Amino acid sequence: MAGTAYQKSPVGCLFYDFFGANTLKADVSISVTELGSLLDHTGPHLEAEEYIARTFGAEQSYMVTNGTSTSNKIVGMYAAPSGSTLLIDRNCHKSLAHLLMMNDVVPLWLKPTRNALGILGGIPKREFTRDSLQQKVNATENAQWPVHAVITNSTYDGLLYNTNWIKQTLDVPSIHFDSAWVPYTHFHPIYQGKSGMSGERVPGKVFFETQSTHKMLAALSQASLIHIKGDYDEDTFNEAFMMHTSTSPSYPIVASIETAAAMLRGNPGKRLINRSVERALHFRKEVQRLREESDSWFFDIWQPEEIDEAECWPVAPGEDWHGFSDADADHMFLDPVKVTILTPGMDEQGNMSDEGIPAALVAKYLDEHGVVVEKTGPYNLLFLFSIGIDKTRAMGLLRGLTEFKRAYDLNLRVKKHAAGSVCGRS
Hints:
Blueprint: H1 10-19, H2 21-26, H3 43-56, E1 60-64, H4 67-79, E2 85-89, H5 94-102, E3 106-110, H6 130-139, E4 148-152, E5 159-161, H7 163-169, E6 174-178, E7 206-211, H8 213-216, E8 224-229, H9 234-243, H10 251-264, H11 266-293, E9 300-301, E10 313-314, E11 332-334, E12 338-342, H12 359-368, E13 375-376, E14 380-384, H13 391-409, H14 414-417
Parallel strand pairs: 2-3, 2-4, 4-6, 6-7
Antiparallel strand pairs: 1-8, 5-11, 7-8, 9-12, 10-11, 12-14, 13-14
């Protein structure tokens, strides 16, 4: 109780001193009746979920304490019963592949595009039409008309869909937007119409949105949310919820989820997200400026040439910057807080340069200098400008890039400046 057991051992005392009394006091048993129940959605847990739903623009929200991998399975177990057919994004999270293993369902794959840089461009509009769905049903053994669809929004690289168009067009009664990487879209006007909970109800349809609260907001690891808009069977859904929820949930995680919602409530939350958007925009412009002023080379950014103000930039047909030759109009948009740095060596159309710098080498250099790279491609690096990224951290990344350029131009040894890289091993 309250960490007293840890204080009965020297090793336990070290653990107690590191995490502190309040953390361990919060780690209480589900038998504490005044706290209610996460599984039954009673007491303070119910109040928190109602508060979260109002904050995030949902009709109902559920707190999940073991990650969006579990949130995805909960939604899928409810919406796609055994023997049914579901549409699923080929660019789906591993947890959804696990759902297919767990549930006896027939998958119909929605196939996204990919550019030469290895960046996925989302599912084209033609895949969402009724004719396309019928062709998939006809070509797949044991398939019926799908009862549920799963779409990754946004992609890892920050491409968001026009979700309002999908909701109106996709002839499926249940649509799940896996939005693990964008729990902030309700709190800034540039994301309007690009999230699962945006817009009004659509008659005869229910929408689910799963979010990793801990990824881009302020919450403990494994903190996740499920948002719902539309009619659904609460009792049946809660059976799926209880199937995947521990009877001993972590109360610190629960508290951190509600805290994340409270931080976003009202104008303070909007200002918080706006600062992230503006900081990312400023960083993009600084990289652009350094590239223009460089006498030789500098890193580039995957974005339109003109980025005067904060917006979700459309991946429009006929433009070269994104590298998608068959892009649809008013369909995909680039999130400004997902910043992809391009290293020399390959352009957006896949044309190779005479000289190049593999992104893995830059990533290793940055890692050695305390900068975390979210994802590394052959010639591109992804960085996330979450609400925790302040000016100092953003400038630290910019300094790391300029110092790498200096070391490269001086032809300094890789072994000295990226000691742990493959190239540097003896």
